[in-house]
Amino acid sequence: MMFSLRSVRNAAMSLPVFSRPAVYSMMREASRKVQVCTNGNDTTRRVGVALFGLGRAGTIHTDNILTNPKLDLRWIIEENLDLAKQFVHHRNLSTTTIQPKDMARALTDPNIDFVVVATPTSTHLSIVTSSLKAQKAVFCEKPVASSVDEIKLCYDEAEMAGKPLFSAFQRRFDPSIASVKKHIQTGAIGKLHVIKTCSRDSQSPSRDYILNSGNTGIFGDSAVHDIDLVCWLAGETPSTVYATGHAFIPYIKEAGDVDTVAITLRFPSGLIAIIDMSRHAVYGYDQRVEVFGENGMAVVQNMQPTTTVHWDKNGLHGPRLEDFFPTRYQEAYKRELEHFVSVVEGKTQLLYHRNDAILTLKVAEACAESNRQGQAIPFHFD
Ligand SMILES: NC(=O)c1ccc[n+]([C@@H]2O[C@H](COP(=O)([O-])OP(=O)(O)OC[C@H]3O[C@@H](n4cnc5c(N)ncnc54)[C@H](O)[C@@H]3O)[C@@H](O)[C@H]2O)c1
Prior knowledge:
By secondary structure, this protein is of the alpha/beta class. It contains 14 helices and 17 strands. A hairpin with a 2-residue loop joins strand 13 and strand 14.
């Protein structure tokens, strides 16, 4: 039997205080059943989710799905079925776990409203297009696919299906970075002259991850975060791209990739962006952004788990930086998921579009080419 939240609350108010707890538990249950717009029909149930890939990114999204009362994680599709089964067992979940060869079971479930794709980038194209063909909205880890052509295929499919396809560049949803964007939009920084970002991972990814991270190596896999951020903050597309990189880590060199990169983007307005990145920083996850313009500067500083510092005869000591992306961008991951849920519910418009996804990977491809050629190359986006 289903109760509306309002009818349950009214019933509770008319009862004596001692009998309210049971009714309040019914209210909690009622509040978990949100209005979902499925195929144009209103139904009262939670938003159904199927998640592909329970690795580093997938675990972050799973935690956020499970703590979001609007969402119902019905399926986990994972190559390593034992891993998924153990996860579900330890968390005492009723989620069904299957391997990708059986994904049709999840995609034909009428109670699935969207899928989360958090598998290696090389697998995205087939999962994203199959999900859209099955009329599911798609929240996809960045980048949506390994090449610009593949990204276009994914968005073509989304347009044919009439379903949203979200490319999860979470930094746009980070409260500090979002406030820099507001400073730019309100004119507080004035005409932009320079944007600098520094992104250094605290641990380099595994050899397998590097081998599956796409055709453009670090540029398409990791620098895309900074490229997306810089182009979004700039509000224009670059006209020249220069990138240079080096491999200090042997298995990254063997894979033909680089782990340390400097990128310079020049924009038509004269704005210059500088991206400094590394796959490995011994002191923690280094994430800084600086926007400098005619009226001043906005800076996003590094985050640390605590702000406690300690002075002694040797000087000043403080905590390490946030360990890695799951903690540094914890709030951003939550907010991007909430944004997407709101899009699926039909309450808001998607904030990230086809051209954003194409631009970001096109610049990354140009960076890889510039690094190969050892020179700056002109860039044009139409
Ligand atoms: N937004 C971010 O901050 C961020 C951070 C890390 C990774 N990523 C992105 O997330 C994606 C996954 O990266 P990761 O670091 O989590 O990788 P990972 O290697 O840690 O995890 C991938 C998981 O997917 C599983 N898998 C492989 N193929 C599969 C398939 N066809 N179907 C279902 N499961 C499959 C693997 O067994 C593994 O458990 C990549 O696209 C990457 O670019 C984004």
